[in-house]
Structure formats: C-alpha cells, structure tokens
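Study this pair:
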Amino acid sequence: MSVLLADIDATCAALGYSDGQRYQAEPDAIQGLKHLIWILRRDHDNHEYRRHLGHAKVLQTDLVYMLPEYVNDEEFADVLIRLLVILTNPTLLLYRDGPPKDNHGRKVFMELIDILQGYKSAFTRDKIWAALFGKLKTSLEVDWALRSEEQSLLIERILVLIRNVLQVPANPEAECRADNDASVHDQVIWALHQSGILDLVLFVISSPDEHQFHLHCLEILCLLYREQTAENLADASLQRSVSEKQRDEQELLAARRREKQRTSTKPPPGRHSRFGGTYVIRNLKSVSDRDIICHQPLERVTSIDFDREKQQQKRSFRHIREEAQVTRRSAFSVRLCLREYCIEVLRSAYNTLVRQVRRVLERNTGGTSHDDSYLLWAIRFFMEFNRLSDMKLELVSESLSVQCFHWVLTRMQH
C-alpha cells in the first residue's frame, strides 16, 4: 500500500467539519486542497489515489458543502473548483489508449465509473450551482477585451465542471427509475435550470465574442439532451399529447391482458399418469426400417419430437454486451424545461453557435473527429426539433447555407 494513502486520509480529516448549519473549514484547508491536487497529479497508472478519494467520499461529505460557504473567497474558490474539475474528469480521458482489455484494468475502469456516478448524485443540490452561478456571472459581466487571464480560466473551469458532471453515464439498474420519473440526470438538469446556469450558457453561445467557450457549451448542450429525442420534446406541452394518451392506454391494456392470461391458465394437475401406453406410427420408419414406436400419446403426428433427449450446447456468456442508446421519457417538468430551452436556443443562439463552432473547427487543424461529432449531432437534433415543432426555417438557416452543407458533406465522406 502506498504511503500517500495515509496522507490522503489525514488531509481529508483536516479539511473541516459541519456544525449542522454551515460548513466550518480549518484555517489550513486551502493547503490541504492544494496537497490533494498535488497527489492526484502524481497518481499511478492504476489510479490508486483517485479511487481512494472516491471511496472516502470526500466530495460528497466536504467539498460540495464547502463551496457555497467559501465561494466569495477568491483563492479558496479557485483551488476548490480546480480540485472538483480534476475529480470529475471523465474516465475515458484517464485512458489514452481506450478502455483497458485485461480483467484487472477493466475492473478498475468500472470502479472509477461507479465513483463518478456517486459524485453526480452529490451535484443535485441547488446551492452548489447557485454559488457557481455567481462566480460565472461576475466573470462574464467583464468585457472579453478587458477580462484577465484568471477570469477566463475560471469561466472555462466552471464550464468544464458542468460538462464533467453531465457526461457521467446513467446507471438504470441502481436508480430503478421508470419513465416520467426524475432520474439523477434529470435532477442535475433541474438544479442547473433553477440556479440560472443554463441561462448563462445560452448567453455564451449567443455571443460571437465568446467563441473560445463555444465548444464547451456545445458539449453541454449535447449532454443535456443525451437521453431525449426531438420527437418527445416537440410533443411536450402543458397537457398530455394524444400520442402519450394512446401509448399509456395501450400499455394498460397489454398489462391487463397479461394478467388475465396468467390467471386463466389452468394449473398443472397434482398427479401425472405414467401409463400413457405405447403406439406405433404408420409410414414413419425408424432406424431399423420398421414403423417407429412412440411411448407417449400424441394428438398429432407432427407433434413428435426427436430432440427431447439431446443435450443443448452451452452458450458463452463472456461476450461484452454492446451498450444500447439510452432514450427515456424524463419527468414532465424536466421535459417542459428542456423544450423551452431548446426553443430559446433556436431563436437566439443556434445560427451563431453553428457558424462560430464550424469556423473554430476549420481553423483548428489538430481538432479531433469527436469535436466534429458534437456539431453534427447539434445540427441533426435542432433541425429535427424545428421541423417537428413547425417553427420558422430562418431559425436554422445557418445549417442550410452552402458553407455548412459543404462542411457536413466533407466530414461524412472523410
């Protein structure tokens, strides 16, 4: 066991405590946070220190309560946000060569994902995002030409933190949420909406001067609508749509039909007769070229089965299952919120966002296709939503321009 694991425990224990009303940080809590950052930057290939911090739940018990109380302290908030960004980094970014193939590496990979899912549950509190809203708003109020480097870094870190929290994959087996119920992802979206963070993201993507943050905001948009479809959002209204009513009625009728079939099925008899007799089937030859002998009564000749005594070949369960695309109906209030937000993006920011991001991707020769995929997804999703909502074509005019059409065509061909 590494020596630094005990150092991590001692540092986490010395960060502070909660008295039931507010979080009280120790005088040297800033140095403790810096020390944790220093340790994480020297983590091993098996991410031992990161996993130890995750199991200690220092983010759930200390950091998320510390942020609202000390957000006005510039140095304290800066170090704390840096640590939160490092802890919530996507697991795939920790593995440059993709997910590990060996058993131990795969186990560590899944363990890191479970830790991130616990972190995501902690970010459903409104106070965290309200504190970050104040920091982000103060920095965005400064004109981009007069903004200091520290303020630009703070904006980028907050946007990356939002992206990191939203990208954590869902765990339907652990949440056990049905459709029209608020999952952890829905709760995070609702907290972002209530705190006003989404309005600031809309301001950034609608401003041509903030083009350096447009890629981060585009990722946030894609992750917001990750579990949604344009058709479901276009149908969302204050009253249930006709399609939803028909779908619910069909599901109810199917459930009643299954219950009726289950109750109407005859129970098996208490005693089975073993004296069914022996029969000869004419014109059906056996191996000895004689009529085949059947030791059970058959209603039809075609019911005879020669495979009853054969042993079925064992199936292999070691294949990796491909993860299907998760699409679900979120809570009604969340769907209304996302629908209104989608309309606001189309009316005030969509054309600017597509134009600026496309220019950034064209100038960035080292850009990856993963960055291109976010813009391609946004074009497809918002154009489909605009069509299904019967909105004006001018709202997506940038997607229909010659330059954008040529860019999409070249990305599809290459």
User: Anything to note?
Assistant: The chain is about 60% helix and 5% strand. The two ends are 48 Å apart (CA to CA).
